[in-house]
Design goal:
Layout: E1 2-3, E2 9-15, E3 18-23, E4 27-33, E5 37-43, E6 48-56, H1 63-78, E7 84-88, H2 95-98, E8 101-109, E9 112-121, E10 126-135, H3 141-148, E11 159-164, E12 167-172, E13 176-183, E14 186-193, E15 197-205, H4 207-213, H5 219-226, E16 230-242, E17 245-255, E18 263-272, E19 277-284, H6 290-295
Antiparallel strand pairs: 1-2, 2-3, 4-5, 5-6, 6-10, 7-8, 8-9, 9-10, 11-12, 13-14, 14-15, 15-19, 16-17, 17-18, 18-19
């Protein structure tokens, strides 16, 4: 996390390869779609503060110009014409984030106001629009530029950042989110690459209460059961470490029913007493060391 001159604490937000740094109070409120097309918004508990739209398209002349004109028309139609929309200067975007992108900045003002950035990414083929929203006309341009200037839709290291609700991890960029479960007290990300390789990353709150019911050494067997996969042979487990925390590493051969495809599930489960959280990373059908690689990117207290 970093702090602005106004002492605002910033934290990463990451979703389907899109990422930026936002004030810590802004949290994911709504999401839809997948990697090729989708939408996400963040709020501060009262008002919507950030919205992101993306869509995979074919690049063509005046792509951004056309997209912004259509968006302007839709905004004015919804506002019944009482809205001012104008182009801005994307020069505030750091040079390292300009390469490989056609950029356009914009702003609009009506009952609410927004500073926005749109781009076409030559690397991903996605058209992305990010807006920082403000109540009334109280636009904080420094805040907007801080957020928009950090926005990008891919990394160069072959990984994607997933970061919501104070939980973040990095996964290979060929693993796509199949199903998120973002419930109070438990976050679960299920990602898949192709037909057989999968990754599951979880954070459980109130670790002390869960550990009263079962020790960390008892978790692997129950976690494999929750996968709905039939165990084949004995569960192997050993003591390990993730960062400064003691962990349990486990391996289990599994199959989907009597004729199911056999796999080896590898995983790590550990606790962070300072955060009172349990963390779980499991993988199957892919690289044997994937669970360890992803677990190493999770930072806790």
């Amino acid at each position: 996390m970093t702090r602005s001159k106004a002492s605002t604490t910033f934290t990463p937000f990451g979703w389907h390869g899109l990422e930026c740094e936002v004030p810590e109070a802004w949290e994911l409120a709504c999401y839809d779609g997948a990697y090729d097309a989708g939408y996400a918004s963040l709020d501060d508990g009262v008002d919507m503060r950030l919205q992101v739209r993306w869509n995979r398209v074919r690049n063509r002349p005046k792509l951004l110009e056309g997209a912004l004109k259509r968006y302007e028309r839709s905004l004015k139609k919804a506002a019944k014409g009482t809205l001012r929309f104008e182009a801005g200067d994307p020069g505030f975007v750091p040079k390292r984030h300009r390469e490989g992108r056609d950029l356009a900045a914009f702003r609009w003002e009506g009952d609410t106001a927004a500073e926005g950035l749109a781009w076409y990414s030559h690397a991903t083929g996605r058209l992305v629009m990010v807006e920082v929203l403000f109540r009334g006309r109280g636009v904080d341009k420094a805040l907007a530029r801080r957020v928009l200037g950090s926005a990008r839709d891919h990394r160069d290291d072959g990984r994607r950042l997933w970061a919501v609700y104070g939980f973040a991890f990095l996964a290979p960029d060929h693993y796509n989110l199949e199903r998120p479960e973002l419930a109070p007290g438990r976050l679960r990300f299920e990602l898949r690459a192709g037909s057989h390789a999968w990754l599951r990353v979880e954070r459980w709150a109130m670790a002390s209460q869960w550990l009263d019911k079962a020790s960390i050494e008892e978790w692997p067997r129950e976690l494999v059961k929750l996968l709905g996969l039939a165990p084949r042979g004995a569960l192997e487990q050993e003591e390990a470490r993730v960062g400064k925390h003691r962990a349990c590493r486990f391996t289990q051969a599994v199959g989907r029913g009597r004729l199911g495809r056999r796999q080896r599930v590898t995983g790590l489960v550990w606790t962070c007493p300072e955060d009172d959280k349990v963390f779980v990373v499991m993988a199957g059908g892919g690289a044997e060391d994937l669970a360890e690689e992803v677990a190493a990117t999770i930072v806790c207290a």
